[in-house]
Design brief:
36% of the residues lie in helices and 19% in strands. The protein is built from 6 helices and 7 strands; from the N terminus they run H-E-H-E-H-H-E-E-H-E-H-E-E.
Length: 198
């Protein structure tokens, strides 16, 4: 099956390298999976590099929540209905994974703001791609607390000049300031957070 990526080859390569370089025990988390293209790629890396990490995917599988859209429009001055990704489904996503030989993924259908992340355990790597401000603002600190030393979070859509999807980037930069990290935007839009080892 043909995969449609919303990222460049350089961006995908950066994600692959970041995942492979992490030491220590912890799981791989993807929040916001879209059509599953990056999900397939990440799982293939876990398998072929023998990383011995569980993969957990979290998505509403029905597009953005009304609460998050209302926040963009009422608090961030956006004028957009954010209707993308509504045609997705958990069943379709799981079949996409199976079609690529992936049978052991843990797939959670939920608003990411409502997930019990402590039940997932320590996290080594997280690709965080929910686009909007409110879910990024609320969930990013939780993921960081569970991140192992040396673990990495990559927040997509951190291009400050994007006219619609600049909410995640704002939340990312605010978080970095709150925890004393220097924001690092690589490959035009990937906000990187690496938890210090010491």
């Amino acid at each position: 099956p043909i995969m449609k990526f919303d990222m460049s080859v350089a961006q995908l390569n950066f994600i692959i390298q970041s995942l492979q370089e992490i030491k220590g025990d912890g799981e791989v988390l993807e929040i916001g999976v879209g059509g599953g293209a990056t999900s397939v790629m990440i799982n293939q890396i876990i398998k072929h590099a023998e990383l011995n990490r569980k993969y957990i995917a979290i998505d509403t599988f029905s597009g953005f929540t009304d609460e998050d859209v209302a926040y963009e429009n009422n608090n961030r001055g956006k004028n957009n209905k954010f209707q993308f990704y509504k045609s997705n489904s958990k069943e379709w996503f799981e079949k996409t994974l199976v079609a690529h030989g992936i049978h052991d993924a843990i797939v959670i259908k939920s608003d990411c703001k409502k997930v019990n992340y402590e039940g997932i355990g320590p996290i080594a790597f997280c690709l965080f791609d929910v686009d909007l401000y409110l879910p990024t603002k609320q969930v990013l600190p939780i993921i960081y607390d569970l991140l192992i030393p040396g673990g990495v979070i990559i927040v997509d859509d951190c291009d400050p000049l994007h006219p619609i999807y600049d909410g995640a980037g704002q939340a990312y930069r605010e978080f970095c300031k709150e925890v004393g990290l220097t924001p690092e935007i690589l490959q035009q839009k990937l906000g990187v957070i690496k938890k210090p080892i010491n």
